[in-house]
Amino acid sequence: MELSVLNIKGEDTGKKVSVSEEIFGIEPNEHAIYLDVKLYLANQRQGTHKSKERAEINHSTRKIKKQKGTGGARAGSIKSPVFVGGGRIFGPRPRNYTFKINRKVKTLARISALSAKAKIDAISVLEAFTFDAPKTKSYLTVLNSLSLVNTKTLLILPEVDSNVYLSSRNIPKAKVTTVDLVNTYDLMNADRLLISESALSNLETLLNK
Fold first, then answer.
1. At residue 123, does pLDDT exceed 90?
2. Distance CA 128, CA 6 (A)
3. Do the beta carbons of residue 24 and residue 207 sit within 8 Å?
4. Mean pLDDT value of segment 180-207
5. Cα separation values, 29 from 26, 46, 155, Å
6. Which residue in 20, 27, 15 sits closest to 205, CA to CA?
7. What's the DSSP call for residue 126?
8. Beta strand 2-6 with 123-126: parallel, antiparallel or unpaired?
9. What are the pLDDT digits (tens) for 9-68?
């Protein structure tokens, strides 16, 4: 499979790059994608939620009224969940939401995500570029040239470029990442993938391990 290389002005440079069919041309495994996205979202949860249950409420423990003769239901404690200020029944407790999936499944999920984007022609390869200083306007100019200002984009770089990253940070629908930090959620969440030409070989090497 071959992809055209664009410059940051949105112009076709005339260069073509060959990409591996094993990375960009497989039939996407939807279940692997589902598992990896679920894992990513689970890992974003802090799990620190907590509400007080009956045993944790600081109230008197005396019986609040006599057992019989009141015409109402029996009540033994003001801590009961049926009273205002009482404990919560089966309230949330701190917990860890993470779970494990095999490394091969994670790799298959990322390959499937890339293949899914290639299938709908949602991948653009860009010539390597950088900025002299971090400026939001500089990155907006690139997106304007590519007609992607209102599109969710993910730019994949071979390594950290602080000027490019900081230039994109204030743009709501733009995200910049590096090859070693690429994850299935970001790939699927973006409407358009922008892959630096110099990042392609690194990406294929990483996913072919």
1. yes
2. 10
3. no
4. 93
5. 9, 29, 23
6. 20
7. E
8. parallel
9. 888 888 888 888 999 999 999 999 999 999 999 999 999 999 999 999 999 888 988 999
Q: How many Å separate Cα 123 from the centre of its chain?
A: 18
Q: Which residues have C-beta within 8 Å of that of residue 98, sequence separation ≥ 6? A: 39, 42, 43
Q: Which two tokens stand for residue 107?
A: 């790799």
Q: What is the DSSP string of 20-89?
A: -HHHHSSPP-HHHHHHHHHHHHHHT---------GGG--S--S-SS-SSSSSS-----TTSTTSTT-PPT
The percent of residues above 90 in pLDDT, for the chain, comes to 77
Q: Are 19 and 2 in contact (CB under 8 A)?
A: yes
By the 10 Å C-beta count (0-12 exposed, 13-18 middle, 19+ buried), 83 is classed as middle
Residue 124's closest CA among 150, 102, 148? 148
Residue 40 contacts residue 183 (beta carbons within 8 Å): yes
What's the distance, CA 89 to chain centroid? 33
What is the average pLDDT across 156-177? 94
The three-state secondary structure class of 17 is strand
* Radius of gyration of the chain measured on its C-alpha atoms: 27
Q: What is the pLDDT of residue 8?
A: 87
In this structure, the dihedral spanned by the alpha carbons of residues 108, 186, 6 and 18, taken in order and rounded to 10 degrees, is 0
